[in-house]
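User: what does the whole thing look like in 3D?
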Amino acid sequence: MTGVESPPPPTADDVEAVYAATSNWGRWGDDDERGTLNLLTDECRSAAAGLVRTGRAVSLGHDLPTTPSVETPSPAHHHMLASGDARDANGIPGYEASRDYVGTDVHGMGITHIDALCHMFVRGQMYNGRSADEVRSTGAVSNTVMTFADGLSGRGVLLDLPRALGVEDLPGNTAVGVSTLEAAESALGARVREGDLLVIGTGRDGRRASGRVDPFRDGLAGLHAECLPWLRDRGVAVLGSDGISDPTPGLGIPDWPFPIHQVGIVGLGLPLIDNMALGAIGSACAEVGRWEFLLTVAPLRVVGGTGCPVNPVAIL
Amino acid sequence: MTGVESPPPPTADDVEAVYAATSNWGRWGDDDERGTLNLLTDECRSAAAGLVRTGRAVSLGHDLPTTPSVETPSPAHHHMLASGDARDANGIPGYEASRDYVGTDVHGMGITHIDALCHMFVRGQMYNGRSADEVRSTGAVSNTVMTFADGLSGRGVLLDLPRALGVEDLPGNTAVGVSTLEAAESALGARVREGDLLVIGTGRDGRRASGRVDPFRDGLAGLHAECLPWLRDRGVAVLGSDGISDPTPGLGIPDWPFPIHQVGIVGLGLPLIDNMALGAIGSACAEVGRWEFLLTVAPLRVVGGTGCPVNPVAIL
Amino acid sequence: MTGVESPPPPTADDVEAVYAATSNWGRWGDDDERGTLNLLTDECRSAAAGLVRTGRAVSLGHDLPTTPSVETPSPAHHHMLASGDARDANGIPGYEASRDYVGTDVHGMGITHIDALCHMFVRGQMYNGRSADEVRSTGAVSNTVMTFADGLSGRGVLLDLPRALGVEDLPGNTAVGVSTLEAAESALGARVREGDLLVIGTGRDGRRASGRVDPFRDGLAGLHAECLPWLRDRGVAVLGSDGISDPTPGLGIPDWPFPIHQVGIVGLGLPLIDNMALGAIGSACAEVGRWEFLLTVAPLRVVGGTGCPVNPVAIL
Amino acid sequence: MTGVESPPPPTADDVEAVYAATSNWGRWGDDDERGTLNLLTDECRSAAAGLVRTGRAVSLGHDLPTTPSVETPSPAHHHMLASGDARDANGIPGYEASRDYVGTDVHGMGITHIDALCHMFVRGQMYNGRSADEVRSTGAVSNTVMTFADGLSGRGVLLDLPRALGVEDLPGNTAVGVSTLEAAESALGARVREGDLLVIGTGRDGRRASGRVDPFRDGLAGLHAECLPWLRDRGVAVLGSDGISDPTPGLGIPDWPFPIHQVGIVGLGLPLIDNMALGAIGSACAEVGRWEFLLTVAPLRVVGGTGCPVNPVAIL
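Assistant: Here's the predicted 3D structure for the full assembly of 1264 residues, as structure tokens:
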């Protein structure tokens, strides 16, 4: 295989039609806030545990960036509160301790994080028809990260597109279509199933060596809007990527700059994990020739939160 | 069984002797920064995955507290950056999103978090003999939370002491001894093994209803220093508790106010998880009559960090 | 004088009537966002500079509280980013520097701060009839702290009530009436004039020694709603206090828990400074027998901000 | 005058000699922490108040930057905690309020801030010979921003170099020498005196229109090290600039990358104000043909702090 053929960019009408056709509103009840997580059942989790062979653990998260860069212009904050020079600052004789503070804009560019279903709106509506008014300045009252309170564990499947396609990485703004996803499945011998946490690798980690990492100038590869019905058909429960799942800087579709975020989160109720680190897991999977594993994502229980920085961990 | 008999409080000399006798410094090489995590092998992880039966997932973390209380005088920060009222504030036509910020003092009282091995010092030394000078105001350079970068997954064992002992909860400042731990093992039919993530339940969640939750006035139950050799003998890899593993306000031992933190983290190299939420997991385990499960703790990859807030998740 | 006679608590209708009668909406144009700052003219400022005699400078701000206490349950954050132990962490040979971070909830209890006119609403309206919708989760778009961008300098007048009345301090929840204010003016030989920054001392700093400092249990003294017309008549431009200008825990008036905040900020357009430190300035004024001075409050220029922590400084 | 002639760059030995020759260590006692603020006496302040003519107030501070840019890669944080959409979130019937959070790296590039004397070290020493060890990870214990607790008020003098020299702005990395400062004094009819807050304008605000604002690529103009003895001779109490007082990216002097920061703060004990906004004050001074005014800088009282963001305000 010599590269990636992108389908032609969709029109706004195309995306609108996909938005209508793939909607999961009402599918799990009018009060549902879990969206496609309804597909990630105990049975899925149990079966996923059965995938474990060697017990090797691999992180799919980046080190939390704390200095500004092209990829992370607004990095996280890591402040030491008491270091070795003040280890006795607690006022308890003999008790010597260090302390620190960590904080971040949850959705910060370049930060590995999960999007809750209240993160995105289409014309003022969230998943399952809820109003944007329910995301208040004091916190969201529905569709929050608390729907992930017990963690997201299940079968992770990595479609490492560069490896599958025999290319180094995907050019910025590549919009991967269904045929490419299915070609990758075939090449890797991995088939996406209902309840999966699907992880799409575009080779971003490898590109870092080249310096072409500006998400808006160099661009990131992502999925074409035509993949949305496919994601629904397959029953994907969670979608992650080393980019942001959408191509950047984007295909220029009026009102639908990022269809995977817009239709995926709002219409399907599909949580997204952005900015995953896929170098290590790609190598690990290639080594054993299997692209499935037990994957756990454990966001903090932030009441009212719109997402969370995470460190997804696979066990192979 | 009618209650918990605490062994008499140890003297400073007793703890000093335990500190000397249980030291793991050098055990895994002079450069080791992983401490007892060396015991949590791929084999442990693989075996732990085999414990999964129903696939039910249960969180062992509290909701992140964001308002001051007796249990959490310095709570975490959750700030909305763009809510529904400003969902179009991104400057990209059609792109409607909310964003928030979350941050916290990692070791904040009442916050479910893990302690890295650079969190504690004894007389200016960290685990494996490193100097407190290596924990700088710009971040620690050794023994950091990055040793947990691939997550901590393995066999979790819950010793739910109130359930095992047939009491409602343990009084504040109770120092649980080895005989009680072993009695709980017998009562629950659970035996702690090498590489385990051991979780000690003292009934703190249940006590909340009573209002007796001030960690320093009402106190928390924890382990007696005599448990340290036992923890080493058993090969416990990670120790967690619904309290802080040490009794509070403490037993008044000169220079050793919190021996589990001091000896455990510095001497044994044993990561601690404080302030776990054990009500749900206790009920779940009681329901199935099994006190072991696959447990995953996935701290953020904070370079230089002394710990991390976490949401530990069990799969039963 | 032997104490402070409080007028009877107003009814909700009383406050409603005061709200209607004292409104400055439209007074300085329909677009006005400066409220009573319109009274603080260049002439006022010039005259205030003429009050300076000795050139002695005195702060009216508290040390920024950074640990939780009864008075400040949610204190400010002060984090060192690079201390002496990492003074060379900048990567520039020879350049040795320390750095820190400071941040706070602007309106934190116990923190000396100024309220912008977008801080308060009455039935969804701000000063000059603007809608609460203009205070968005991404920042306010009107009535912000930016109206203070050039600082607030002018004639400060301190009515130190305990000194004027010959009492130690005012009991919690005291509602000071007009007659008391005027008695204080007479006793101190100070008359409040148009454009003044009026500072009301209730003896809170002195009370701290007694431990009776819980704003909601022990209470704070403040002004009775009957003072609002008086503040308008006198042309007060800015009102400050060692409490929060309103009595706490409050007089129990339905829908009008804090009339000075509600009517003062929304109706009059009167900026308030809460939690001032008045011990030093009280002593300094008593020493020279003059209760007027050049006062400067210089909030940061926070675009969209609802207020700012400040360190007001007097020159006598 | 057609431009600015810079003296040749100093050698490290030159700066070393200046450091020795201009030291104020011990000048005001071995315990002194105020440095050149000792020169800013009550008499200075009283005289400065006498400079006020029209009472016009002008800010010399920038809007607090809250989005990343070339000038401010690590901007401040401004988070709304409760906006109009949650104005009733306080739980007190009738009480409708908004709240926000503001915080910043004190010494952030592009942020108007003052440097306390514990901000800089030379070979591990601070002003007056104190050790860098006194700046701990829990806060500095000497030479802190608390020495500015009563504010810095006095005679401000603006040497607006572009206006004085008849040029548009000074090229990046210009090192202004004494002869240029004195030429500016003559041209503007302003003479710097003991106890002054001296403000050097280099035209940075004007340059912003050109886009040449990257402090390290385009550079900033500042003072040559030969100005240090002049600053000491003249008795300057506080030095501010629209840049950082030092030329950037710097003259390449080994071990002395920024002599004004290094020698000025550590040797002379001279507080610096970086990143002032001088467009408005320049125009105001030019209008009235006077370059002196009452200037007030009122840092927050941050115990242990190394500086503070400020909004300096002039009254003309």
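In plain terms: The radius of gyration of chain D is 20 Å. The interface with chain B takes residues 77, 79-81, 83-85, 101, 136-137 of chain D (CB under 8 Å).
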